[in-house]
Design brief:
By secondary structure, the chain is α+β, with helices and mostly antiparallel strands. It folds into four domains: 2-203, Immunoglobulin-like, CATH 2.60.40.3650; 207-300, Orthogonal Bundle (Neutral Protease, domain 2); 313-476 and 607-618, Orthogonal Bundle (Neutral Protease, domain 2); 491-596, Pdz3 Domain (Roll). Helix content is 27%, strand content 28%. The protein has 16 helices and 29 strands. The strands form seven sheets. The protein has an eight-stranded mixed β-sheet with strand order 5-4-8-2-1-12-15-14. Strands 17-18-19-21-20 form a five-stranded mixed β-sheet, covered by helices on one side. Strands 6-7-3-11 form a four-stranded antiparallel β-sheet, with no helix packed on it. The radius of gyration is 26 Å and the shape is globular. It starts with a helix and ends with a helix. 42% of the residues are buried. Residues 1-19 have low confidence and may be disordered.
Length: 618
């Protein structure tokens, strides 16, 4: 019946406007004319579901799955008006940043409102582009649907119909079901709001390729204003990655259709690049590089694509109730970011290693970077506690999910294999949990550790209690040495900053931020650091997460007493205004610190060789 309605809608609806009377039923019928976009804005009209209550609350999400960040998409909506079937305006009242209350809702027929895109937002709380929206008339439209289409609080499970009028030559790339497509119109349907949000749309003149597998059809869609990267350039590498994942998962991909949507940007954005996963697609925001740099960019995308596709396993098909029953406006966090992001990051590289796309030496260097990167965060903070507080209290520690979270995944994989005499690894445990749970059935957050222990051994429970739920640092040399990855600590000179110096990562500005320090430390007093300072540059060089360790001292940068130290920080005053401050001091004291170095051993014991063989699947 839903398909029949959608086909009828495509035939009967007037796409240029909804002034003509359209039969109102239990579905959301949205209309957007891309030709009428202007000033990074576009008008949206909605023939609402039938409402049977005196008042109704129309909402936009505060947060969406996969972002771990409250964004409040309602702040990009303006001029919302409500009308009855004869065109009389009904009273509306904005009750909070994401919500509108509509009076006489039992007479409601139509809503009309304006959407501002997020890509051009300049406020402090900038939205990470893979979760955002772009409105560039005659060029490109990014429909992360939660930024354009709202919902009534009690009607989340109603069907959605999206009716687009588009410029000639444009194509809507998405994993949504398309019920009509011609030169000027496209219609997509979704069974409910969660599914709608889970399937972004990239509208532009098409540059697409399709990779066909027996069980799945995979779309690659590219928007590159400089034409430096094309879908055809990406397809070969991506096919290799998908074949590796396919082999690892038992010969079948986890979705019958999938869309890789790539937006290559040629102007400044929020300050970071990356991607966001969905059940049937993933959206990528990357720099638009010239043709000669395309091979490097495509190689870099290899692990990112593997990470996002593996998310179809977890958390999209294996998750706790907090995710399975996601509340768009009052989200609750799970304690298992080690699984959702950490294990996913681990598998993204491990699968490529196991299937021969990267070698063990390069893999070891990647693990080395993750160990050293994780030490920039609070290594004594229990990972479960960080996960629960990732939206607020521990927001600045979140980025560690891609560092320590991946190392937790590797540690568990090795230990599970050791405990099972090589017969089982972390993926086997996940597979068993998938059989018990799956997309439609959630596990209880507080019971997951016990369930994994029941499938493995008490030693895995000890690992969880000490190193994931506990405050002890993971003994990487001991665990990784079991498969012949040697981890040694290399001494170097580092600035003496006191024992309580802590930093985090500000997801709003994409800068490292000073979280805590010893106020009695002499160098800090001279430098004039304040809590909340965000690091911009050091001795004229831009500071990023990748080069941060070299600034305060590293194996490559042996700081000496007498060295000049000049750092620019972004500092917010009591009025909320940000200004740049240059801090200067002379290094007066250094201390011995340690980086980890990972190397691959060739001479292995019988037990090491057995475990490495089981781990590599060879």
């Amino acid at each position: 019946m839903r398909i029949i309605f959608s086909v009828l809608a495509a035939v009967l609806f007037t796409f240029s406007s909804v002034n003509s009377q359209i039969i109102q039923n239990d579905s959301y019928q949205f209309f957007v004319d891309l030709n009428k976009a202007g000033n990074d804005q576009i008008e949206v009209e909605l023939i609402t579901p039938v409402i049977n209550t005196p008042t109704a609350e129309f909402k936009f999400p505060a947060m969406v799955p996969g972002t771990y960040k409250v964004y409040n998409f309602g702040r990009f909506i303006s001029d919302l008006k409500a009308f009855d079937q004869t065109g009389n305006e009904l009273m509306t009242k904005k009750t909070d940043i994401d919500s509108w209350e509509i009076s006489d809702a039992d007479k409601l027929y139509k809503l009309r409102y304006t959407v501002d895109d997020t890509f051009d937002d300049t406020t402090d709380n900038r939205i990470f582009e893979p979760a955002g929206t772009s409105i560039e008339k005659d060029s490109v439209f990014v429909f992360n649907n939660h930024g354009f289409f709202g919902y009534f609080k009690n009607n989340l499970n109603n069907e959605y119909s999206l009716n687009f009028t588009k410029p000639e030559g444009f194509y809507g790339s998405t994993s949504l079901i398309n019920t009509l497509r011609d030169e000027n119109r496209e219609v997509f349907t979704a069974p409910d709001y969660q599914f709608l949000v889970d399937n972004p749309i990239l509208f532009c003149k098409p540059d697409t390729m399709t990779i066909n597998f027996d069980e799945a059809k995979v779309l690659i869609s590219v928007y590159s204003p400089g034409k430096g990267i094309k879908a055809a350039d990406i397809s070969e590498k991506l096919k290799n990655v998908l074949n590796a994942i396919r082999n690892f998962l038992g010969g079948r991909l986890t979705a019958d259709r999938y869309a890789f949507l790539f937006y290559f940007a040629n102007k400044p954005g929020s300050g970071s690049f990356g991607a966001l996963e969905h059940n049937y697609s993933s959206f990528y925001y990357m720099p638009d590089v010239p043709k000669e740099s395309a091979p490097f960019m495509i190689k870099e995308l290899q692990s990112t694509c593997a990470h996002e596709f593996y998310h179809t396993v977890t958390p999209l098909n294996l998750h706790s109730e907090e995710i399975g029953n996601f509340d768009f406006n009052d989200p609750k966090m799970s304690r298992h970011l080690w699984l959702y992001e950490g294990a996913t990051e681990y598998f993204a590289d491990y699968i490529q290693l196991r299937e021969g796309l990267i070698d063990l030496k390069d893999y070891g260097k990647n693990i080395q970077r993750k160990i050293n990167g994780s030490m920039m965060f609070n290594d004594t903070l229990p990972f479960t506690e960080m996960s629960l507080g990732a939206l607020d209290k521990y927001e600045e520690q979140y980025f560690n999910v891609y560092q320590k979270g991946a190392l937790i995944g590797l540690s568990l994989d090795i230990l599970i294999r050791e405990e099972s005499n090589g017969s089982m690894g972390l993926q086997d445990v996940i597979n068993k949990l998938l059989l018990k749970y799956g997309k439609e059935k959630s596990f209880k957050d507080e019971e997951l550790f016990d369930e994994i222990v029941a499938l493995t051994s008490p030693k895995i429970g000890e690992f969880f209690q000490k190193y994931v739920a506990g405050d002890q640092g993971i003994p990487y040399p001991e665990i990784f040495g079991k498969v012949g990855m040697k981890v040694v600590r290399i001494p170097y000179n580092k600035l003496e900053m006191g024992g309580n110096f802590q930093m985090g990562f500000n997801q709003k500005t994409f800068r490292l931020v000073i979280h805590d320090f010893d106020e009695n430390n002499s160098f800090i007093k001279k430098l004039g650091i304040k809590k909340g300072d965000e690091l911009v540059s050091f001795n004229g060089k831009q500071i990023s997460f990748m080069n941060m360790r070299e600034i305060f001292g590293s194996v490559k940068n042996q700081i000496k007493t007498g060295d000049k130290f000049e750092m620019v920080v972004a500092r917010t005053d009591e009025n909320g205004s940000e200004k740049m401050e240059t801090l200067k001091a002379v290094v007066s004291e250094v201390k011995t610190a340690y980086d980890s170095e990972v190397s691959i051993e060739k001479d292995l014991s019988e037990q090491q060789m057995k475990l490495r063989t089981a781990w590599l699947g060879r």
